[in-house]
Amino acid sequence: MSKNFTRGLCLAALLCAQLPATAAAGATVAKGSATAAAAATAVPLRLDAPIPVGPQVKVGKLANGLSYYIQKNARPERKLELRLVVKAGSILEDEDQRGLAHFVEHMAFNGSTNFRKHELVSYLQSIGVGFGADLNAYTSFDETVYILPIPTDKQENVSKAFQVLEDWAHGLSFDPETIDKERGIVLEELRLGKGASDRMSKQIMPAIFNGSKYAERLPIGTEDVLRNFTPEALKRFYRDWYRPDLMAVVVVGDIDPAQAEKLVKSHFAHLKNPQPSRPRAYAEIPARQSTQALVVTDQEATGNAVLIRYPVQKVEEAGTIRAYRDDLVQSLFAAMLNQRLQELSQLPEPPFMGASSSLGKLTPRYRSYNASAALGPRGAEVALSALVEENERARRYGFGAAELERMKKNLMRTYEQAWNERAKSDSATYAAEYIRNFLQQEAIPGIDTEYRYVKELVPGITLDEVNAYARRTIPADSGKLVLYTGVTRPDTPKGEQLLATVEAAQRAEVSRHDEKAVAARLMDKPPQAGTIVAQAQDKALGLTHLTFSNGVKVILKPTDFRNDQVMMSAARFGGQSLFGDQDILNARFANAIVASMGVKEFTPLDMRKILAGKAAQVNVGLANYTDVVVGASGATDVETMLQLTWLKFSGVRRDEDLFRSYVGKQAEQARNQTAQPGTRFGDAVMAALYNNHPRAPRSLTPEEYAQIDLDRSIDIFKQRFSSAKDLTFILVGSFDPAAIKPLLATYLGSLPTPDLPVAYRDVGLRPAKGVVKREVKSGTEPKSTISLTFTGQAEFTEAEQLRLSALLEVTNIRIIDVLREQMALIYGGGATGALSKIPYGNYSIGVTLPTGPENVDKVLATTFAEIKRLQTRGPDAADLEKVKSNWIQNHRRSLRENGYWLGHLQSALSEGTDPASILDVEKRVQALTADDIRLAAQRYFNERNYVQVVLNPETTAPAQVAAHTDKPAPGG
Fold it and tell me: Helix, strand, coil proportions of the chain in percent (round to 5)?
């Protein structure tokens, strides 16, 4: 199971708007019942009043202490999101249980009172719930969370789902034979995590947590315990900590709340807490009393970085409106400071590649002020000086009125979008918020209430107030940890050097921030509009086709899927293929280089300032065989998105300083990647597959980045993006076609369209023929990775693409069932692939299988045996039905997503297929047969034509550590 949990992000976040650390999450998830008008007439806010629980959710507690959250939500339709949340993670493990909190999570899918081993996963797959993609769980230091999305088409599904939650809560089987089988899987997961990051973290964690128990309780555990623990130790953890007073059940989705509450009570009210119950204590993190430098390097590290961690502070959730306002101040402060750090990263010779500084949580109950930077070629001392001095500048002189006003605009726009989408938020996003409320006491007032808070509170936050916050938040003199991590090199700095650099920077003279004035708008006046010369309707798909006087075409698909989202794309043939091999580097990086220099006379940072309060972005560039335009905006920011599009075609801003900055960062990253086993392995796969063809994708050396020519890259970009000839723009989202047409005529209808080539060139990139086998030796850990790539010619059709996709899905079910569940040879892995018609009809299937060196031959033999089984017998009927059910569930949900429609319409244009095929997906999926899959396996798994590359370890060497402790410092 995954040990990470990723929150949903609103569009504003994706468009780089600054988000408040705690309030933004609530802004994206809560659905209130009050109206904006009601909020406007509400009584004035009392800052010391507690933040209420919103009316959108029913929060309750059973007599045994189990908490529950219930909300009816219609997005997605016919879907219910269930969560079992346990306030128990690895921090509660006894010495003989290190890794067993996570192991219990694994056992939840391996047999319980009402579901035998494999029966649960098989049943859920049969109703369309994918293992890993949908059904999942994670274990952290302080919690374990089980994730169960369920289709509500049948009441039986809902009833069984609650039975699953109940079994997880108190009915796991812990069969000794199953435990021993699962050991192998968890040990493979442990092996998969080994590498430079793991080696370095074991040296870093004791310093980060300042000797706290947290440093000794990484969720994966220790190899010794995992190999040798007794079943009784596992059962003891489950018995002690899986109890109702530490649990919450979250129910969000297409269900009647009264029915949901009845199900919660019937399944959980009878659970009992153990007597006596072990106290659920939370580990302390000691205050740092001295300043320490720690240098940790590894020859396989992914890059070089510095971190300054200041003393930890206990987090106390006041739960008042005043505390909410304080969080808004903190968010504005962090946004302004980090924008200044970004400005430094874009200097011609930047002190670092990127940096950030803010007050952040170390655990749910502790936070600290941190400053960190990814290092560039100028090294650690220059980066540390810049990082500390910029913090000192903010502490001593604060920020400017223009900076604060921009961040206020961004913050307000973020909440405005969240409020606009209040009826369109996904159930999983709500569920994540309620989990945070249970675990971290995050307020859940609902978006109507939060939007009111923001509208009333943000305008009253003054510059003096934010500057005072900066003075008391940025530490002036305290104990601190100065950490350097990076690639082992002769010039690695010593701890004494790091401490001296920080101390000197703290004493350095700094001046006020020089705020550069920027334009108030992107364009002084709009271009001369074109006219619509043709118009047609496609009522079946809800499309409007437009042709403008300059030849540019537009397809409009207005939807009600989201209230504040518009997505756009366009593509035509050409791309990098039109340029020779000698120009491939200039062509490949033309997009990124042009983007790094800004637009018109504006640098990228100028653009962020001009676009403050807007949610709009546009990217254009050359793909391998196509020229591509991609954009997105809020409903009220469509004109801004179209202006950005127009400006992309109006010329290129040449900035040699920003070009050098970009290339320097890329070269530094390349320098740091040279010793990484993953990089060497990936390059070896591509080299074997494409016979070292110059067009084959691969990592570059620092010397190759130095060969990129600025003016040639600009010329290549301008050759493709000085004309919009043959482009069809597709817009999908929340807009009124009648209202948007004048904007389209102004900005797309006026684009230049001089003649240019609009066909791709076949550059002769072909995979190797026959059977090719290679071995790569790299890395210091006992871990291997197998790569199998099957390729060949094939005719592209939608029907054949569907059959190939089904083959891959069935293959993955077998890989997990056999290689993982039955043989415990892998933790994860699988097959991906696709058909393509460009530049010729072809297919490619890639199978990636991480395992141990001692198991490579077994994994290969078993994989080919499973392929042979599919070729001769076809898939099991039950496996094919699982694939069909999951696809149909996903398709129904995706039909209410703008991105799904945009992707389908763009593919139909590029591949020449019927866009109406989106309407009969279910019919085509249901028509798939086992024989279709068997024949597809024979066509595409050609055992006479594949490339096999195996990564095996080379040597063993630990991370290198150096530490230095200076005199005790005040603070702590």
Answer: 45, 20, 35
